[in-house]
Fold these 2 entries.
Entry 1:
Amino acid sequence: MKEKVEVIKTSLDSDLNSVTSLNDLGQLKAKYLGKKGLVTLLTSNMKDLSIEERKEVGKIANEIREEVNSKLTNKEEELKNKELNDKLEKESIDISLPSKKIKRGSRHPFNRIVEDVEDFFVSMGYDVVDGPELETDENCFRLLNLPDGHPARDTQDTFYIDEEYLLRTQTSSVQAREMQANKEKTPIRMICPGKVYRRDEDATHSHQFGQVEGLVIDKNISLADLKGTLELFAKKMLGENTKVRFRPSYFPFTEPSVEVDVSCFKCGGKGCSLCKQTGWIEVLGAGMVHPNVLRMGGYDPEVWTGFAFGTGLDRFAMFRYAIPDIRYLYTNDIRFLEQFDRKDEENEIK
Ligand code: DAH
């Protein structure tokens, strides 16, 4: 018996020395500890032995079983570690290799303008609201004091879908929506940036372009509030030295109405090609909300007053980035968009 045990021990040691994979180790396990394994066989003739002998053989067999087991487990651990290390070595990353250049996009010049406009008005306590581009004639015209047949309708070349539906020609439609939606008739302070559509196309007009509408309704709102607001707005968008001037004008939804000019940010007002030597650039339409518009929106004009303004967003992008053709803003030509990388955000007029 002792001899057998010694044979097992030496054979195990040499087997363990030559084993190199976990798979082979599994086979060794079977060779020694399996049903017909060498260690198992040591006790195969137990029933033929006396009680004394059984005790003796059982003890030796247990000891050798334990020894074999622990050696196999140690080897298993060793092989597992080795496998992991090999794997790590193989998969190691060479951090000195130059990486593939990732092409980064940039914010679209139009969106930069929208974000600046929103930032400014949100800081003044306005809500930013949305309205549908497919609009009713009612919201786009009638509720804004432009009844059927009104001559001013001709100035907005409208895409009609049918008798009642159209693609909105102005974000002013959202004025009508907001007034109706405000059931409690509380003060309103909102802007609505969005797309509008007109049957028009050349270097400075696109069939689709962006506008932002502003509407304030409260008690005791005056033209001075409008002017103060637009002055701050113009400075934010075009630079601290920008001056603002109001010229009398006409819009059906405001009374009085004004057209708003800003001092030319290119020549500072001296006169240049951009401002056509006048020193001023027209940027906005605005005025005090017409009593009819207030009334149709459910606000009593004896109690409430308000101002409204509307301006094209594309023009601001064209001014700021000296973009010569409005269509560049909509064709998504990568050669155009690439020019607006992050660097020039620092050079924006703020
Ligand atoms: N909706 C006008 C347009 O598209 C712009 C405008 C003018 C909006 C005066 C206003 C306003 O709110 O008061 O030409």
Entry 2:
Amino acid sequence: MRPAVLNPLFASLSSLPGIGPKLERLYARLLGRDGEPARIIDLLLHLPSGFVDRRDQPKLSEVTPDTVATVAVRIDRHRPPPPHRPRVPYNIEASDDTNTLTITYFNARKDYLQKQFPIGEVRYVSGTATLYDGHLQMVHPDRVVDAEGFKHLPLIDPVYPLTEGLHPNQLRKAVDLALERLPALTEWQDRDWLSRNAYPGFAEALRTLHRPASPDDLRPEGASWSRLAYDELLAGQLALALLRAHMRNRGGRGSAAEGRLRDRIIAALPYALTPSQQRAVTDIVADLAQPQRMLRLLHGDVGSGKTVVALLAAANVIEAGRQAAFMAPTEILARQHFATIAPLARAAGIRLAILTGRERGRERDDILTALDIGDIDLIVGTHALFQEYVAFHDLALAIVDEQHRFGVHQRLALARKGDAVDLLVLTATPIPRTLVLTYFGDMDVSELREKPAGRQKIDTRAVPLERLAEVTEAVARALDTGRQVYWVCPLVEESESVDVAAAEERCKMLRQRFGAAVDLVHGRMRGPDKDRAMERFAKSETRLLVATTVIEVGVDVPRASVMVIEHAERFGLAQLHQLRGRVGRGAERSSCILLYKAPLGPTAKARLAILRETDDGFRIAEEDLRLRGQGDVLGVRQSGMPGFAIARIDVHAALLPTARDDAALVLSRDPKLQSPRGAALRQLLYLFARDEAIRMIGAG
Ligand code: ADP
Ligand code: MG
């Protein structure tokens, strides 16, 4: 049961004044609630990504394009769109004594703008300044005030990641209201430790970050952010430790097999296993034969061949007469695993099925029944596999393909599913080797170090966008020789529909050139449509696939050997590596073209250089860390560690071992979290969505 004191934080955001159904939907999207209503706590943990510093106002000539600036300008002229052309923006010309600025509004209300921007007067406008056709422009400024209003603006104003349709001011207001709902909570951290580090309490840290008095307050390495990051890391480590204790305590059942099925699968493979794949299989088979439960991580870079290792593990328990489940993070991936495994399963006589949110009605019932009575040996699916109503006859092995996500929740749900389920987690999370064990909670690890034989280095080039025509010609030559091509358009989260429009536009242009061979897939499409687009591409019915980053995760089409990434400068290093990993999967020589918008900043330049130089995911992870240390790059989302909203790998990784030791110490003294500090730590687990672990305590 959630402690009642937390209830105000878990109330839905719509309990705040001014948040109706429409805003509620936007917040659900922004805060990643997957269609569920966002709650106050989700908003409070949505930390600023930057700030506007209004302590000085640059002259227009001093404004750096693509940064947020506050400027004082004189309003010179209004240029409304011509009548009946609502898509043309409303422009307002403004200036100071150094330069001019165009303030631009789409779908604007004319009377409102005329009131906001009286000609001849001075206004303080704050927003992202960009360079458009050589002119300084500001689209939809965040703040517009007169001199009097300016006096009341916070001089350090936090900037939040947004979603399309949500105005920064709406978000700021909601945060204000949410802060008022913060209850007084019992401290769960060790007080001495807090004071030694000069860390504030939980509520105070949140207030400081949302209402900074100086830019220093917002530094991730500062006391407030670090305090919350540590909270989050500790919650993660506690959850993992509880999971581990639960798994170990309950014992397991050995699933010994001679390897008959495994051999049949291996005989049906068109390739030989790499030495590290063989080693991983040997490790896993040994684990499976033991009466203890297995809790093993299969860690390998993209394209290292984890799927087949997982299948061989499954074959082992199936030969012992038991069942295996293989969970993928997305529908596309589940279908792809199913398609890869199907012929091999057939060759080995393994009864295979798939279950996702999409199987419905009769079909679904049949699958569920067959699973329950043991007529299915191996089931592939999404998280639909672990809903309450899915019952197994005798589940022996659960495989979770996390790619580079971090699904503690899924793992916990799985561990509770069967009676003595062995757990194998597949991951490509680019985490430096020194951190892997701690990050994943000290699981046993098998690592796939080398790529399958015959892989060639991917020829990687950085090309400025101005040379788009040349790139199109290179793509034409590739298509002529029967190769397949991915063309990735970036997602900039502020405006998904603008991004989708850009992808659609690019698709249209490429269709004019290459006709029906071109297809499009993006995140706004319905699931079945996405699948069909992927399937057509996999079957070579289409040969140039324009995509947003939906293809980032794990998709495997070995015939695709050219990858074009548009606006590569907007992606993080790890993400570029993931994307590039979609090619170079066959024996053919592959290439990757990183189209960038010039001029590149030094960090972006370094990132693209590293990619050209190496395709070792671990090395890239380490370089990524190093570069991140050198400061923020505009337009690149500084994502935290996978699975963590607040802790960042570059800044807070050093806290991870401390959190691990802390969690171990706490649980050694108080394994059921029953002491006063234990009770407070339960609150922490709820706040950071690790409360699934609390149920393990009862079950343990
Ligand atoms: P990931 O580790 O990224 O999940 P996959 O399991 O999707 O990688 O494998 C990537 C590709 O490599 C697939 O096309 C697979 O068939 C192929 N593959 C796997 N193992 C080998 C091997 N030992 N030799 C050659 N190709 C392999
Ligand atoms: Mg994979």
